[in-house]
Structure formats: structure tokens, C-alpha cells
Batch of 2 targets.
Target 1
Amino acid sequence: MSGFSSAFERLGAALAAVVLQQQETLAEFLPREDWSADLTARSYASGGVTVRVSLLGSYAARERTWLWGWANPQFGDDHPAVAPTLRIRELGERLGIPEFTTPEIDLGWYTGPAGHGGELVAMAAGGVLGGGGYIGAGYDGGSAYLHVDDPQAPPAVWDPVPVPRLLMNAASLFPRDPRLTLARLLSHHRVPYRETDGVTEVPLPGGGTARAHFDALGRFLDWEAELSPAGLSPTGP
């Protein structure tokens, strides 16, 4: 595999802003200090906080490959930390997403803005599962990626202020369809919106309207917010 599949890129674009926002919420909840994990018990502890996790997969830095938990001979389908993630593979089979069904993915070709291609696989996988976000747990030679499946991990709440930043960051990682990225974020929070040529209009809490502008190729241009009745001037990203 050289380059991500079209199906993976589209799914990533749909989920990217939702995942990035949830990652910020998780970072506020879970201290990133000295950590320990017991995957058989599905637990991860850091800074005095313990959460339930499952194993998505791991990224090997030297080989630049992603290995799914179900394909790792140390774990497999029946391992307690892997079984909750199998619907990712099922979705891949159903929608024809090879990244979700290939046991070990060669990511040596990746030269994008993420630290490595495994970050994008973890983002998409975490987005499919929803929940509290994902954790990159470093070890000698790479990182294991754990999905936080714990009701004590708070969900991200709707806030229009960071939307342009989230959208720009998401589009830098998954540039396939920024309009889809925004639409999925709004739908996730059950926020109504209206799409016209090159513009997505979003009502703001307390009155007013925000408008996301896109060019003819669907690329995100800017975000303006007209607040009412305060009469504040529009703001950009």
C-alpha cells in the first residue's frame, strides 16, 4: 500500500474534527504523567486517574508500520483488550476500507503533517469507536494506541469558538472534504446548519450566525461570526 485509500481518506475527513475535539477534552481530564497499563484488565493509569481502555494497535517507528491488535500474536481477536475494537475491522470489510482489514500496514511512504501515518490510523479508528478518545502510549521502538472506553471520560461539548481551528487542523490531516468535516462535527453535536454554494451557515448560541466559506475546490477559506444582538464585528479563523 502506497498512500491511503479513497475510502479511508473520506472516512478520516468525516471524523477528524470530532476526534480532535475529543482529544482536547481527554487531555484536560487525563493527566499525561508516568503511566502504567494492564491490558488484560483493560486499565490505564496516569496521574492518579485510571480509565478503562482497549487496544487499537501499535506503530513501530523503525519499520514504520501499523499492526492491529487483532493481528498481534501477543493478543488476537479473543483478548479482552482487543475484542471491543473488532467492529473497526467489520466496518472495513463492509465499506471496503483496506486500512481497517490489512493486518500490518506499511506506512513508510507517509510524509504528511502528522508525526507518522500511524497517528492517522489511530484517529480514524478512534473516531469509529467514539468514546473518550485515544492514547498514544510510547514504548521502546514505537507506540501502542489505546482507545478510552470509560464513562467517566467526559464527552466534548459544543462550542463554536474553536470550530475554525479544529476545521483547519482536521483539514491539514485529512484534506479530502473539509465541508464534510464540518458537517460531521455539527451533526455530532446535533447543531443545525444550512449549506449553499461555498458557504455553510450555522446558528450561534444566543443569536447570530456563523458562516464557513469554502472555495470552488471545497477547501476551507475562513469563518465569520455575526453575533446578535451585541453587534460585534465578524471574526476570522
Note: The chain is about 30% helix and 25% strand.
Target 2
Amino acid sequence: MSQIAINTSQNVNINFNIASVGERMLAFIIDFLIKVAYVIIVLYLFFNILDLGYLLEGLDQWSIMAVYIILTFPVYIYPVVLESLMEGQTPGKKLMKIRVVKIDGYQASFGDYLIRWMFRLIDTTAAGVVGLISMIVSKNNQRLGDIASGTAVISLKNNINISHTILENINEDYIPSFPQVIALSDNDMRIIKDNYTKALKVDDRQIISKLSDKIKSILKLEIDSRKMTERQFINVVIKDYNYYTGKEN
């Protein structure tokens, strides 16, 4: 399985397994079936349960088409909305344990998901052949939407995944210090802990200092260095995140 090295904001590479074309296709099929089920249910409710079919009588072809578009609108925005809400996943991707991530190491934004969604018009051309060819020939199995948005789809079926490296042992009587950590995502914490662990191994004080400053900036915290060292601060942040999100070993 091919891998991709994602460069974090602290200039540290983390290797992830690239989701295979097969995994992405199966995720697409699962999502497609969910959308088909939605359309069937909505149309059944509209015509059979609510018996609103009479509303279409006397309407011209364009008006009827507009009604159908309104009824099935959630199907069209399904990918961009769910990827935004589920941090790069749809139900299909979640079941296949794959996720959309930014290659530069940052959390993908709504804008990134929107670009991927807009390029679906091209990627699905000729029954999806364009997107399929793009994934096969590109280095990181990227379709055109991924290339345009600077994203890739990774597999979480390995030893390095989005949540594995954020786990931290905490005692039952642990008292957190920074409730602001709830503003961080699992992906943010994975990057923080992974970079911190690497820096500790080689005693890279510069990376530790930059990482500490970055966390303080994001969480808008001011810490007295005489009371808490940078290493102590990062350790507390990691434990606090585990405390508030319930991620314990």
C-alpha cells in the first residue's frame, strides 16, 4: 500500500497509508445507496403518504423539474455538507475507514471540501471514468478535486491513524487546567502529540518552543513560564484534551 508523507506546520513529516481506489469506490457506492434510499423515501412520502402529486398538475416541464430538484436537493450537497460536519468523512468513508485530509498537515476547511465537491462535475464525467483515471495515474490516488484542493484520502486501517496517537493515560481524579482545549480537533491533537513526541526523542527545544507558542496562540492562552515550562504545558494540554473528550487508554 502506497504512503503519503504529510508535512505538518512544524515541518515534521507523518506517513499515512493512501486509501486505495477500491476503498474509495466502495465508499462511493455506500454513499450512493444512501442517497438512492433518501430519494425513494422522499418521493414515496410526497406522492403516497402526503398525496401531494396533484401539486404538479398543470405545471410546465421546467416547474416540475424544479420541484424534483428541491425535493432531492440534500442528495446534491451530501458530500460537501457531511465531509464538513464529519471532519473529512461521509457515512461511506466512515464505514470504509478512510478520510479526506490536507496534504500540508492542516485541518481541511469547508472551502477545501467545496472545491472537491465542485470538481465532481468533471470527475464524474463519462460515468466517473475521468475521476477514476485521475486516481489511477496520480501519485497519491487523487482525483481532480483532490489535486485542486490540495487534499488526499488516507486509510485509517493502520497503526497510524487520526485518533490513535492522541490517547493519553489520565487518573480518575485528574483535574484539567485548560478547558479551552475543546476548541481543538482530533486531527489537531494528533499533530501536536506526534510532533511533541518526535521533538522529545531528539531533545529539539526549538520545535517544542514553537509548538508551545502555536498552541497558546490558537487557544489564546498566556502562561507564566516561571510556573509552567513549555514541556509541562504541552503535557497538560494533551491530558486535558483526553479528559474532556473521554479518550482514555
Note: The mean pLDDT is 86.
